Amino acid sequence: MSCENTSSSLDTDNDLPATAWQDSVDRRRSAPTSTLGAWHRGMERLAATRINSWLGLACDTGVAIALLVGGFRLLDTWPISSVCVVLAGVFAFSFVEYCFHRWLFHGSAALFEQGHNRHHELPLGHDSLPFFFAPLAILALAALVGLVASKPFAMLFTGGFAAGYAAYGLSHTVIHHMRFRSALIRRWAAAHHIHHHHPDSNFGVTSPLWDILMRTRYARRGPQDSI
């Protein structure tokens, strides 16, 4: 419904003259927004930028290296058990990756689902978490693990976890922005591309392990299956 610029025209919702109604709209628009709302919109704009995506990859990799180097430097020797702790962190992340992708990104949590749906619609976009979020979360995890374990163990385990997360970010980026010559690597990348066409399968990006164990690995249907 259009509103003519005359003193006699009325807004059906507010029952105000058009000029008074327009003044009220202008006041609402010029009123200061809440700090939380402004911060949320700022983070949304940041998360969609290319610089945020690259800063995120750099920070994730840097935190992983710092934790691993710091953990190993606290040890007098590098026993095989220390390497196992790092691998345990990588293994733990692979499970977290699967769970987040399956039940949060494709689940009922509207905040995560909305952002992930945007990625499915624009797979070549740069939507990602604000670059500082994951490093802070990983450092908080290291502090929590340090409450129940030795400092070297906490740093090595969390460093392995962070390395898994960095590998996830790098893998996801190259899968969508590079073309591979190796048949083996193409097959690995194709598994994630299949997920974009069949979002109820292939939730693992870095590894198919949990898709195999949870029976969510995509399997091409034969002619007999479609009857």
Mean pLDDT, nearest integer?
Answer: 77
What best-fitting shape do the alpha-carbon axes yield? globular
Major sheet details: none
Rg over C-alpha atoms, rounded to the nearest angstrom: 25 Å
User: Structural class from helices and strands?
Assistant: mainly alpha
Sheet-strand content, in percent, reads under 5%
For the termini, the CA-CA separation is: 52 Å
N to C succession of SSEs: HHHHHHHHH
**Which residue ranges are poorly predicted, with pLDDT under 50 across at least 5 consecutive positions?**
1-18, 28-32, 223-227
Total number of strands: 0
Explain the overall architecture.
The longest helix is centred in the last third of the chain and has 27 residues, at 151-177. Mean pLDDT is 77; it is low at 1-18, 28-32 and 223-227. The protein has 227 residues and is mainly alpha-helical. Helix 3 (50-73) runs antiparallel to helix 7 (151-177). The chain starts with 17 loop residues before the first helix and ends in a 13-residue tail after the last helix. 66% of the residues lie in helices and 0% in strands. It has a domain at 68-221. The chain has nine helices and no strands.
Brief sketch in words of this structure:
This protein has a domain at 68-221.
List the keywords.
227 residues; mainly alpha; globular; disordered N terminus; disordered C terminus
List the helices and strands and how they pair.
Elements: H1 18-30, H2 35-47, H3 50-73, H4 80-105, H5 110-121, H6 133-146, H7 151-177, H8 183-197, H9 209-214
